[in-house]
Amino acid sequence: MKLISNMRLITKLFVGCFLVACLLGTIWLLGNVWAVNSARPSKNNENKQSNPVLARAFVHGAPSSGIAGVVTFRQPQCPGCPTPGPTAPPTAPGFRNFPEPTVEIVARINGPNGVLTPGAHGMHIHEVGRCELPGFTTAGGHFDPGPFGSSTPVDANHPYHTGDVPNLIVDATGHGFLQHTTSRITLSPGPLSVFDLDGSAVIIHLDPDRGITGVTGASGGARIACGIIELVSDNNAADDDK
Ligand SMILES: [Cu+2]
């Protein structure tokens, strides 16, 4: 009789321990699932932080020139940039910091040998998104919203315009290439955005940009190709051009 009683007690203890172990295991499992889900950013946040802002310009010379190509612009989202807001001491209540995203520019421009000659060609972002012949003068001067803000005469603030970038380098077979990263412009809205009221354009020049101030023609001379900068809504479409 005593043996049976002991057996029942042992069985009860065993079942009790088993139930407690199951309960603790379930709590541990639920805790881990919650922790993993909390650490994973939601799909919306992920896209918001990783999707760059993209733009491109299809560049063409005069119809008979054979010059054509594309310039892509890529501005990573800037979650770490300072948020615009009052940061100055009380003596300057209007002062604000602006985010400083960078924009990667990749240009691939091709042309017949002898037209797009081997060597350096001035390339800039110009202040108006219009490319009309003859001479593409409708693109205006170099994009330069500030702080100096002087596109005319071009030599006065060159090579410090906001839209000044290094030369396009053309090889012996007529393939021109430039890769450059700048913090002078933005694709997103703001005081340095290339998407202001009249837009912006890329101009390729006949001669090299000598990168000096106050010398007429030193920024590249005649304009041989032009492309209007357009925002790209489909990220994949811009990737195809890279
Ligand atoms: Cu120019």
How does this model look, in words?
The protein has 242 residues and is an alpha+beta fold. It has two domains: 2-40; 51-78 and 100-240, Immunoglobulin-like. Helices cover 21% and strands 24% of the residues. The protein contains three helices and nine strands; from the N terminus they run H-H-E-E-E-E-E-E-E-E-E-H. A hairpin with a 7-residue loop joins strand 1 (53-60) and strand 2. The radius of gyration is 30 Å and the shape is elongated. The termini are far apart. The protein binds copper (II) ion.
Bound molecules: copper (II) ion
Into how many domains do the coordinates divide? Answer: 2
Q: Mean of residue pLDDT?
A: 78
Question: What topology, given as strand order, has the largest sheet?
Answer: 4-6-7-3-2-1-9-8-5
Report the biggest beta sheet as strand number plus sense, adding barrel if it closes.
9 strands, antiparallel
* Count of DSSP strands: 9
Provide the CATH topology of the largest domain: Immunoglobulin-like
Order of helices and strands: HHEEEEEEEEEH
Strand content: 15-25%
Give the CATH superfamily of the largest domain: Superoxide dismutase, copper/zinc binding domain
For the termini, the CA-CA separation is 87 Å
Low-confidence stretches: 29-49, 82-93, 238-242
Note the overall shape. elongated
Structural class: alpha+beta
CATH architecture of the largest domain: Sandwich
CATH C-level class of the largest domain:
Mainly Beta
* Helical content class: 10-25%
Over the alpha carbons, how many angstroms does the gyration radius reach? 30 Å
Number of helices: 3
